Amino acid sequence: MKFAMVNNMRTYLILFAAGLTFNSCKSKNDNSKENNFPSKVHLVRDIYGGENSFVYNVTRILTGKLKLENIDSGFNGLQIRVWYSQSFNDTSQLLVLKRMSDKWAGQIFTYVLQRDKKTSKLIDSIVYVSSPIAPKSGWKNIYGDLKRLKIMDLADMSALSGNGVDILDGNGVSVEISNEEKYRFYSYTSPTSFADRWWQANNIDEFLNITQSEFDFPSYQYYGRQF
Length: 227
What we know:
Strand content: 25-35%
Number of helices: 5
Helix content: 25-40%
Structural class: alpha+beta
Order of helices and strands: HEHEEEEHEEHH
Number of strands: 7
Distance between the termini: 23 Å
């Protein structure tokens, strides 16, 4: 199963981002008050491309539209968000894993970017469903996989030596990790395609397949639009 961030998806997301820009500041401010902010003042922020990164900012807008708390200023505990996307498909998914006071919880979001029926242009609207999930083999095993595959420490794919291959089509994944000390954001392009080339791509690809199996949620690649 392939999950990949494709180059041409940037063009697709630009249309969406353009329609949401006017409300992005409001969404971010509205959710910030709900954030489970840590007491630590000096937080390390590791965002590929910085805060002006296109993919990072689209993720911030989606965070507001899904009515999620902002975690880019830290989180009391551990929270991991895995954003799944596919080019030429307006249905996407988000996996949220949280650990607070040694208690784990999971949630899966499936959302559709609504279009104007007359113009087919993306508009400022998202329809989504969410449900709680738990791993079949237990949270201890999932956390073990996170550590074994170094998911919390992987570099962005663009930082890997020799990266420069253009992908014309495919799927994508962006990962957010937040705790009391650090916030990280990185993305991968076609990790399955490059699993033999970079161990980092292999690790993220393996983790995606593990979560798909452990949480037993259907991939949007197969069921398409459900709204």
